[in-house]
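Weekly puzzle thread! Below is a chain. First person to post its structure in token form gets bragging rights.
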Amino acid sequence: MRHGEVRRVGAATVTCGLLLAALAACGGSGTEHRRGGTAGAGAEGGGTPSSTAAATRLPGVGDRLQGRIPAGSRQVLAVYGDGKDSADATVVFYAKRGTAWERVRSWPGHNGKKGWTADHHLGDNRSPVGVFTLTAAGGVLDDPGARLPYTQSEDFGAPHWWERSHWHDFDYVIAIDYNRVKGTPPDDPTQPEGEEKGGGIWLHMDHGSGTSACVSLSKAAMEYLLRTLDPDQHPVVLMGDRAALKG
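Winning reply:
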């Protein structure tokens, strides 16, 4: 399944429906999901530490999206998609030092299997372009020391009728605040803009290929981000293909 959007169906099947929806959305077999301190460069995370000098603007990001970064945000996770129709991306973590953005770490990642869109809809298999807050996390595994509110539950687990490569997709997840209520657990089913706009889009663990709309990273990268993204620093994800980010 692919990651990206999840739904809950009724009181008795809320947990099951959400789980499957979320699982499907993030990378399993074709849906998007939703279930039911400033960082410094460190050794953990499995990414590439950066020696790039700090800049007052994020590299490769035009005025339109640069202007959408909240004034109070001091942590940005930038997802640079290889192309509009590509599922491959480079993910870079930036921390703000004074008025300058410092590139701290980077990792390879994946996005929607059909690429990117500025008008995401349920089932289009494209990740939404934009700037979104990051306010909640969770997963199958115990809290690794997350700074964001963390919800641990077996219900996040991918069904074992999915391909084995997807079984651990949701061991760790960070909710991307696209069409969801900020601060609620990642599996909260509420979609303020309606179901057709999709939802349940997460950062989650990578299975080696594109997702339904989510962004996927290695386990080491997810652990690093969970321990680093700090609500007091108002973290956001800025994501899109390189051409869209410059526009």
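Puzzle host: Confirmed. Bonus trivia for everyone else. Helices lie at 14-26, 63-66, 219-228, 242-246.
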